[in-house]
Design a protein that fits this description.
Helix content: 25-40%
Number of strands: 4
CATH topology: Alpha-Beta Plaits
Number of helices: 3
Strand order of the largest sheet: 2-3-1-4
Largest sheet: 4 strands, antiparallel
Structural class: alpha+beta
Strand content: 35-45%
Length: about 100
Amino acid sequence: MLIVLAEATLGDGALDAGHDAFRAMIEASREEDGCLGYSYAVDILDASIFVIVEKWVDDAALAYHFQTPHMAAFQKALQDLDIEITELAKHQADDGSPLM
């Protein structure tokens, strides 16, 4: 399994302005066959920090994701928003186990 972790800094109004694009990206990505999880969150202590967590079955699923029409639409929507990606990395992981 791959886990993609990203962090971005949101400028004033970017969260509200990007809401529809964020929602569309999440919904479409979660429908992809190789997607195990896809979510965005805002840091509780600093609302300018935007966190992205994605889980994919493998590299092929992630590569497919980057070629989808919803990714192209999302990238286009981001061009008009004040967002700066500050961290972006993929991690290999096993399926995990319960903590409790």
